From TrEMBL:
Keywords: Membrane, Transmembrane, Transmembrane helix. The chain crosses the membrane at residues 53-75, 96-113. InterPro entries: DUF2752. It comes from Arenibacter algicola. This is Uncharacterized protein DUF2752.
Amino acid sequence: MGVVFVGILLLYFFNNPSNSRYFPQCPFLTATGYYCTGCGSQRALHDLLHLDIIGVAKHNLLFFPAFLLIAYHWVRSYAPAKGKESLPDLIYHPKTPMVLFIIITLFTIFRNINLYPFTLLAPE
């Protein structure tokens, strides 16, 4: 699994999804003309691998919290047991799914509103 993960990271490091025809287009955007929650994530990953934080924010602002949430889950689940007790279990809290659903829904709605400041949420 680790080899596949590293392979994907290398693919995104050496190939810019903005300039390559090998990366899939968003089916939701293609079908509806509206941005989904994940639109711009491929370009954001490429920018993150090149340490272009501004580029990540321009392509998908939700990429940062999602990345941090995955990292938190990894540390909480797979890190050595020392100090793990001090980390609160936020991911498996009963209210977490509803909070995430509301954030994702609002983000998707707001990034499709064609008025400033909501246009800043649309991927460039």
